[in-house]
Specification:
The protein is of the alpha+beta class and 220 residues long. It has helices spanning 18-34, 92-104, 157-160, 190-202, and strands at 46-57, 60-68, 79-80, 83-85, 113-116, 120-121, 126-136, 149-156, 165-167, 176-181, 184-187. The two termini are 28 Å apart.
């Protein structure tokens, strides 16, 4: 499943001295630049972009993770990366930056885009294209639109940069991937994307995640 990216910049500490955070942007961009992402055919699926938003918090690096509002029609209450369906004519990166702004209030320009990860096809009919963006420090009191976002959390990358939990389910031949999150678990598609980011962006690996399954509750 994993292979080193030739000439990769090497592992980056997800948390630690402030110098690691200061150098993180260049190293992550270098690792992503060497990664050969896989695009999924769109066909009848809906195109969506998500923002893997790297922030500096304290003396380490973190990710922005949202909790979807309980009143939403689809995937209510689930953990997610900022993102959503692309508008006609919108690029993958522009859609990710727009969704990040709309869901969290964080505004970044095109220069903040560090690269992209593999597309992930969801059970609910989307092709999710993850875009890694660098934000730097953010306010501790981030809030999103109440109709879409219940909470916004800044989670240390060190919490995610661990071996994933793989769970077998009778409905699929592929394992469900889980990562620890606030005493519970983050599931695919978000867990798959975050895991690939840690492997590729932080460690320069060529890890693929399209085969990882989502829990049944996320299939609709």
């Amino acid at each position: 499943m994993s292979a080193p990216v030739p000439g990769a910049a090497g592992a980056i500490r997800a948390a630690g001295a402030s110098g690691a955070a200061a150098d993180g942007r260049q190293a992550i961009a270098a690792n992503l630049g060497r990664f050969k992402r896989i695009e999924a055919p769109l066909g009848d699926l809906k195109p969506a972009s998500v923002a893997v938003c790297v922030v500096r918090a304290g003396d380490g690096l973190s990710l922005l993770i949202t909790r979807r509002a309980a009143t939403m029609r689809n995937h209510a209450g689930q953990w997610a990366l900022p993102g959503g369906r692309r508008d006609p004519g919108e690029t993958v990166a522009d859609a990710a930056r727009r969704e990040l702004r709309e869901e969290t209030g964080v505004v970044v320009g095109p220069e903040a885009v560090l690269g992209q990860l593999d597309d992930y096809v969801t059970r609910s009919g989307y092709v999710m294209s993850p875009v890694v963006v660098w934000v730097g420090p953010v306010r501790p009191d981030l809030t999103g639109p109440a109709a879409e976002v219940a909470q916004i959390h800044v989670i240390p990358l060190a919490d995610f940069d661990v071996p994933p939990r793989l769970v077998r389910i009778p409905e699929s031949d592929h394992p469900v991937i889980q990562l620890p999150l606030l005493g519970g678990y983050l599931h695919a598609p978000t867990a798959a994307i975050v895991y690939q980011f840690c492997q590729v962006g932080l460690h320069g690996q060529g890890t693929r995640v399209a085969h990882f399954e989502q829990p049944v509750f996320a299939w609709k």
